[in-house]
Design goal:
Number of strands: 4
Number of helices: 1
Largest sheet: 4 strands, mixed
Structural class: mainly beta
Helix content: 10-25%
Order of helices and strands: EEEHE
Strand order of the largest sheet: 3-2-1-4
Length: about 90
């Protein structure tokens, strides 16, 4: 059966990527990608979607991931992308 209307996926909207331009107040909307290397070496990409600011960095952390926990509590990301095979504990 032929379709009279072709539909394709053109945009993915999530809480971290959607914002209303008509709103007066500014809210930071962070998305963070986390990768852990051996010996608790953490690499991150932090994306602030309302301003298109991208922060890339890495740091050495302890077994309890204290620096990573502090970063997450300060930025309060709406979305976290990670590979659970690379993050221990």
């Amino acid at each position: 059966m032929d379709k009279c209307l072709k539909r394709d996926l053109v945009q993915v909207m999530t809480k971290g990527t959607f914002f209303d331009l008509d709103r007066i107040s500014y809210e930071q909307r962070f998305i963070i990608c986390i990768q852990s290397k051996n010996n608790y070496r953490i690499s991150i990409v932090l994306i602030e979607s309302t301003t298109s600011r991208i922060i890339v960095g890495n740091f050495d952390d302890s077994q309890g991931y204290n620096k990573l926990k502090k970063l997450l509590s300060e930025t309060k990301p709406l979305e976290v992308v990670y590979n659970n095979e690379t993050l221990n504990d």
